[in-house]
Design brief:
transferase activity; Rhodanese-like_dom; Oxidized Rhodanese, domain 1; five-stranded parallel beta sheet; Rhodanese-like_dom_sf; 2 domains; 10 strands; alpha/beta; repeat; 10 helices; 264 residues
Length: 264
């Protein structure tokens, strides 16, 4: 699995004293303070980088607003960012996607979440102070970005793309994009370890749903949170032709897009 997208707790623990490796905890501030956190982590709560009033697609906060968050956290453009939450990585993966769209090249998801880390490794309630940085974002171009808009989705429906719905069964059966296959984002997580399943098992699981590296893949859910996790996992497995539908089903329904319903 490509550690440019997902890194192990072992790797992270070995780099806790590396000043160029910055840990970002995206849980609520009270969790960060009261429950504890990974040593050296800085808190950037999930709500701070989700802006439903933004002019950006979906709920992306905008490049300048996101850069302000990184500046306040003392993160430099060349830093390696490792992100975690306590929800199997789904909120952390959203940070990874956002940072990459806005041009931060080295940002990775911690394999496992805070609870997985806390079982075997040191945590702290002490908060390290960081000097604010100067961060000039360089968002990816439309050609470089994985984001796909409404018109792009309409065009992909006419091609041999596979649409992947990462929501729960009842949501999928109520309404979905035409021809979409359901792949619950949590299927890639081992319930016992709270970490990702072994790579070979993940590849077999994805293949059973027709999600293979040779296909054009379009991911969607309701508001693009859950597909962030699936996107990061697919990239870590070497998948490249992935469209990330930021507007997801919320935008599609608002635009009166065609829908299917019923059982799988």
């Amino acid at each position: 699995m490509d550690d440019a997208y997902v890194v192990s707790p072992e790797w992270t623990e070995a780099h806790l004293e590396d000043p160029s490796v910055r840990l970002v905890d995206v849980r609520d501030a009270w969790e960060f303070d009261a429950i504890g956190h990974v040593p050296g982590a800085v808190n950037v709560p999930f709500d701070s980088y989700r802006d439903e009033d933004s002019d950006e697609p979906g709920t992306l906060p905008g490049a300048t607003a996101f850069a302000d968050l990184l500046e306040a956290a003392g993160i430099e453009p060349d830093d390696t960012i490792v992100v975690y939450d306590d929800m199997h990585g789904v909120f952390a993966a959203r940070f990874v996607l956002t940072a990459r769209v806005y041009g931060h090249e080295d940002v990775r998801l911690l394999d496992g979440d805070f609870s997985a880390w806390n079982r075997e490794r040191e945590t702290t309630s002490d908060e390290r102070e960081f000097e604010p940085s100067s961060y000039d974002p360089e968002p990816l171009s439309a050609e470089e970005s994985p984001l796909i808009d409404l018109e792009g989705v309409e065009a992909a429906l006419e091609r041999d793309a596979i649409f992947v719905d990462t929501r729960e069964r009842d949501e999928y059966e109520e309404a979905r994009l035409p021809g979409a296959v359901r792949f619950d984002w949590r299927e890639v997580v081992d319930d016992e370890t709270r970490r990702l399943k072994p790579e070979a098992e993940l590849e077999e699981l994805l293949a059973e749903h027709g999600i293979t590296p040779d296909r054009e893949i379009i991911l969607y859910c309701n508001t693009a949170r859950r597909i962030s996790h699936t996107y990061v996992v697919l990239r870590a497995l070497g998948y490249e032709n992935i469209g990330f539908y930021e507007g997801s089903l919320t935008e599609w329904i608002a635009a009166d897009g065609a829908l299917e319903s019923g059982s799988e």
